[in-house]
């Protein structure tokens, strides 16, 4: 049978499987059994079958694969974002190849190299901190890309996200309005993480505008883990005077800080107010529920997928307007005890 006249149903008949199984074997082989996959592969070879999608890819030099690099999947907020990105790409007929850089721009460049060799059609990244070599490789490959979770005042690099600095400043303003004057911050590690740095800058900016200061000794950079949040909170509560408000770089650190306060017998929010950032699902069920900044992770993933697919397919990939993030006030914040 000539390859040009071979149809999907011909492969299914020869392999003695359903057409749906053939389709899955060709597009997502991990979803079919090894035995069925062998039969489909054998039938494809015998019939010299070229799937319509593969033929289009050969003509257009597309693989219908989008690379995505996230800092980590151990943080639920990035897992939720990645799931939304994957679902939105799948709905547009693309598959996602995923890597995690662990907040290291240098290792990220090595992680992206095999994705480029695979022939990805585009790349979705998190934040603006990436090596010059990575940007150079993308330019040399003429690879469309988008930076997410961030914004830029420059139009040089396409971004879809929100203003981390202003969002953190809004948190600080809210606490100042509650008469807090003794501030501390448990921040993420700033190296290789522009979002963490901008959140610290936002808090400093808001305090300075109101005649207050965030002293260096009261800013603790910590890995994003519950235990790191606990350890940092214990250090902060040993200071004199104690902080009455602790702003955390994300919800993981804030929940760890809250757990340490429980262990130390420190009343939240009467003795100290605690805030997070992200609004992960757990934030609403802590005791008391966590005041935090809500990031629309699902919308962020969907918009990133739509933008990058439009770029790949030659449509206008206009960068979406900045996303709005909202302060969600719950039970971990209240008026300063020193007012």
Brief summary:
The protein has 339 residues and is an alpha/beta fold.
Question: What can you see in these coordinates?
Answer:
The chain is α/β, with parallel strands linked by helices and 339 residues long. The protein folds into 3 domains: 57 residues, Orthogonal Bundle (434 Repressor (Amino-terminal Domain)); 128 residues, 3-Layer(aba) Sandwich (Rossmann fold), CATH 3.40.50; 131 residues, Response regulator (Rossmann fold, 3-Layer(aba) Sandwich), CATH 3.40.50.2300. The protein contains 12 helices and 11 strands. The longest helix has 16 residues. The model has no long low-confidence stretch (mean pLDDT 90).
Major pleated sheet = 5 strands, parallel
Q: So what's the CATH class of the largest domain?
A: Alpha Beta
Q: Whole-number radius of gyration?
A: 24 Å
Shape: elongated
Number of strands: 11
Number of separate domains:
3
User: End-to-end distance, in Å?
Assistant: 85 Å
What average pLDDT do the residues reach?
A: 90
The portion of residues forming beta strands comes to 5-15%
Q: At CATH's second level, what is the architecture of the largest domain?
A: 3-Layer(aba) Sandwich
């Amino acid at each position: 049978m000539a390859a040009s006249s071979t149809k999907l149903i011909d492969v299914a008949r020869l392999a003695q499987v359903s057409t749906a199984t053939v389709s899955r074997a060709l597009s997502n082989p991990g979803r079919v059994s090894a035995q069925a996959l062998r039969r489909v592969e054998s039938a494809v070879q015998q019939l010299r079958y070229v799937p319509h999608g593969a033929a289009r890819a050969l003509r257009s030099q597309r693989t219908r694969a989008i690379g995505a690099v996230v800092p980590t999947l151990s943080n639920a907020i990035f897992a939720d974002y990645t799931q939304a990105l994957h679902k939105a790409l799948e709905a547009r007929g693309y598959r996602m190849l995923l890597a995690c850089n662990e907040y290291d721009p240098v290792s990220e460049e090595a992680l992206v190299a095999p994705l480029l060799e695979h022939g990805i059609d585009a790349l979705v990244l998190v934040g603006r901190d990436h090596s010059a070599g990575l940007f150079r490789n993308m330019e040399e490959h003429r690879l469309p890309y988008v930076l997410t979770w961030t914004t830029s005042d420059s139009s040089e690099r396409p971004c879809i996200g929100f203003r981390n600095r202003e969002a953190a400043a809004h948190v600080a303003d809210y606490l100042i309005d509650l008469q807090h004057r003794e501030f501390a911050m448990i921040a993420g590690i700033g190296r290789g993480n522009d979002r963490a740095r901008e959140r610290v800058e936002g808090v400093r900016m808001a305090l300075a505008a109101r005649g207050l200061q965030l002293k260096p000794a009261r800013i603790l950079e910590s890995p994003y883990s519950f235990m790191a949040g606990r350890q940092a909170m214990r250090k902060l509560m040993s200071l004199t005077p104690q902080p009455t408000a602790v702003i955390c770089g994300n919800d993981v650190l804030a929940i760890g800080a809250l757990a340490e306060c429980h262990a130390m017998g420190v009343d939240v929010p009467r003795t100290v107010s605690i805030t997070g950032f992200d609004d992960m699902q757990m934030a609403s069920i802590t005791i008391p529920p966590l005041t935090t900044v809500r990031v629309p992770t699902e919308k962020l993933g969907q918009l990133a997928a739509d933008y990058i697919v439009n770029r790949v397919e030659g449509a206008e990939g206009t960068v979406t307007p900045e996303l709005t993030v909202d302060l969600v006030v719950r039970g971990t914040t209240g008026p300063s005890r020193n007012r």
